[in-house]
Amino acid sequence: MRASSQAVFQALHDGFIAGTPGPLTDRRIADLQTLIGLTGDGTGEPLPAHLFFRGARE
Hints:
45% of the residues lie in helices and 0% in strands. It is mostly helical.
């Protein structure tokens, strides 16, 4: 990142990580499916839940 110091680098890094969404739960997947449907995906069918990545934050 070409940060001016390690402290600046760490602050940028921590800010980025803090803005990263957490793992997907069944509720969050259902909400995302609703949102995609409301935005007009064109099919009228929700995306299958298995298409959503449920990995843990690092």
